[in-house]
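Reopening this one. Same input as before:
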Amino acid sequence: MLLVCTLSVIGVIFGVLASLCVALNAIFTKKTLPMVGDSIWRMTMYNNLNAVLLFLPLMLFTGELGTIPYSPNIVAPTFWLLMTLSGFFGFIMGYVTGWQIQATSALTHNISGTAKAAAQTVIAVGWWREVKPILWWLSNLVVLVGSAAYTWVQKRDMDKRFHENQGQETEKAEEIRKIKNSDENGIRLNGIHSAEQGLIKGKGINEESI
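Same output, byte for byte:
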């Protein structure tokens, strides 16, 4: 009954839309990276420019442009210090996000981000000693166990590909060694043959002189 009373339909809708946008952002980041030469710096710059341009009409429609000049925080150094720090860390997060998507995949990025959020939530609840229902703990447990299972499967796949590549490199090294040995044997045989020809020619010259 408590779950039904506290469930917000609007909250669920916005939560699903937020998750959808996060997933689509990772997918489109992976697709558009080749268009910027696989440069994370360039991708981060474009994302920041898009954010600035998109926020301006939102600020206009919500009326924030008219209230900003009258805010007491607009001249407070602490406000601008915190804004600068948040912008810096936001830039770092955007760069690391693009880097992770480039190095792995959009799916891996989304799963790792979900696992990180669930782990941080559990740690925060334990730190502040909050009381949560059993379904809350069960949902976080499902996220963490599912993420761990995905990590385990990915590790097995990476180990398999690593051993396959290692075997191919060993075979290539063996082929190169055989070719090198055959070349050395050929050079050695050519040297012996040349020496024999030299001895024969020398013997013929000696016989003619006699």
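So the earlier flakiness isn't reproducible anymore. For the record, The chain has two domains: 21-103, 107-196.
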